[in-house]
Specification:
It is a single chain. By secondary structure, this protein is of the alpha/beta class. The protein contains 7 helices and 7 strands; from the N terminus they run αααββαββαβααββ. It has a 7-stranded mixed beta sheet with strand order 3-2-1-4-5-7-6.
Length: about 190
């Protein structure tokens, strides 16, 4: 990974510093529990995925940071260090995919969506949660990550929707506590 691995440095303390409070809401939004496979892209230490254990048959995490993957594995997760745009899974192998607070850390966001679409089964869905670009919380996060030289690339709601122009028009959006939530369904003939 070129440059400073901010998340590798934060990994041992990440769960204490960054909490996630929308577990129940997220479980409903991604339609859990269900029988099948779920991939958490940018899953870090597994802080979000922790609420999904025993709610799917198979839960996999992918993150670019070795430090984060190590922490997830220490918690018992199946975790792989990989780029979101080069996922190490066969096509159509997951019913659900999740990207929480991670898309803005991906340098090739179009490539991430393309590869997530490849591994997602027909009838499956992808849920993305990102800081709301126009909300004061989103603005503060953008400023903070800029000060930390994280090279984050934040997108507005319409920019995120535009990533799916070639894939799906079945997109639902809602706003929760300063975040934008997207649920994108993959049709059976996509």
């Amino acid at each position: 990974m070129p440059g400073l691995d901010h998340f590798g440095l934060l990994a041992p303390w990440y769960d204490r510093i960054i909490s996630y409070k929308e577990d129940e809401e997220l479980l409903k939004w991604i339609e859990l529990p269900f029988s099948g496979n779920l991939l958490d892209i940018g899953g870090g230490t597994g802080r979000v995925a922790s609420s999904m254990v025993n709610k799917v048959d198979n839960l996999e995490l992918v993150d670019i940071s070795y430090g984060m993957v190590k922490m997830a594995k220490n918690k018992g997760f199946s975790a792989t260090c990989a780029l979101g745009e080069v996922l190490p899974y066969p096509g159509e192998s997951f019913e659900r995919a999740l990207i929480v607070d991670a898309l803005h850390h991906c340098s090739n966001q179009e490539g991430v969506i393309k590869d997530v679409w490849r591994i997602l089964k027909p009838g499956g869905c992808l849920v993305i949660v990102e800081p709301n670009y126009d909300h004061s919380t989103g603005k503060l996060i953008r400023l903070f990550e800029k000060m930390l030289v994280m090279k984050s690339k934040f997108l507005s709601d319409s920019d995120i929707v535009s990533l799916f122009l070639d894939y799906s028009d079945d997109i639902n959006i809602k706003h929760v506590n300063g975040n934008s939530w997207f649920k994108v369904k993959k049709g059976y003939f996509s």
